[in-house]
Amino acid sequence: MENSLWKYNTHNDSLDFLRSLHLTDGLNLASDNQLAFLYALSNHAQNHYSQVFIPKKNGKKRKLLIPDYLLKQVQTNILKHILVQFPVSPYATAYKSGCSTVFNAFPHLNQKLLLKLDIHDFFGSITYIDVYQKVFKSELFPPSVRTLLTHLCCYHDALPQGAPSSPYISNLILKPFDNYIGNWCKKQQITYTRYCDDMTFSGDFNPVLVKKKVQSFLMRLGFSLNPEKTHVCSQKNRQEVTGLVVNQKLQTSKEYRRRIRQECYYIKKFGLKDHLAHIGYKKGETHYLQSLNSKINYILYVNPSDSEFLLLKKELSSFFQV
Question: What EC number(s) would the UniProt record show (predicted)?
Answer without folding.
Answer: 2.7.7.49
